[in-house]
Write a structure and sequence with these properties.
Layout (H helix, E strand, L loop, with lengths): L8 E9 L4 H13 L4 E6 L3 E3 L9 E10 L3 H14 L14 E7 L4 E2 L4 E2 L8 H10 L6 H6 L5 E3 L1
Antiparallel strand pairs: 1-4, 1-5, 2-4, 3-4, 3-8, 6-7
Length: about 160
């Protein structure tokens, strides 16, 4: 079945960057996501500044977008990774500072557990930089308890 014959699925993607010009990088990445065949950008959160979590380096700029896609989850992930590579993403070590990080948070109501992809994203509920922008554009996707659990993490809307 080709991508155009598939029913559209709602997917949420977290964006982050802390090297170069992170704000410009995220805005460009949002526009690039909308250009992928089989992907429509539905909503975009505000940009947020956050301190690195389990990492060092400059503060991050983060956001979340809602997509409608006819791509499969693995095909969407491949497109996200291609955008990261195009932005100069280096994976020199775990949690290294990055020019662009795109994380597929959810893909419809699906659960995926493979070597390449786990849905929903296994750590999204532990991170204010994901939950706060996600709650902005999809309040039904985040519970009050989840937000309470990350309230000690520094996050500021830009």
């Amino acid at each position: 079945m080709n991508a155009s014959a598939r029913p559209a699925v709602t997917a949420y993607v977290a964006l982050g960057a802390n090297l170069g010009d992170p704000q410009a990088t995220l805005l460009t990445a949002m526009n690039d996501l909308a250009l992928i065949e089989g992907v429509s950008l539905i909503k975009r959160s505000s940009l947020y500044q956050t301190a690195p979590v389990d990492a060092s380096g400059p503060d991050y700029v983060n956001a979340v977008v809602e997509l409608q896609t006819t791509l499969t989850a693995p095909a969407l992930l491949a497109q996200l990774q291609a955008l990261e590579q195009g932005a100069g993403r280096q994976r020199s070590f775990h949690n290294a500072p990055r020019t662009l990080d795109l994380d597929l948070l959810t893909y419809g109501d699906g659960y995926i557990s493979s070597a390449a992809l786990t849905m929903p994203h296994p750590r999204m509920g532990e991170r204010a930089f994901v939950l706060v922008p996600l709650a902005e554009i999809a309040p039904q996707a985040v519970t009050a308890a989840q937000l309470l659990a990350v309230q000690s993490q520094s996050i500021e809307r830009l």
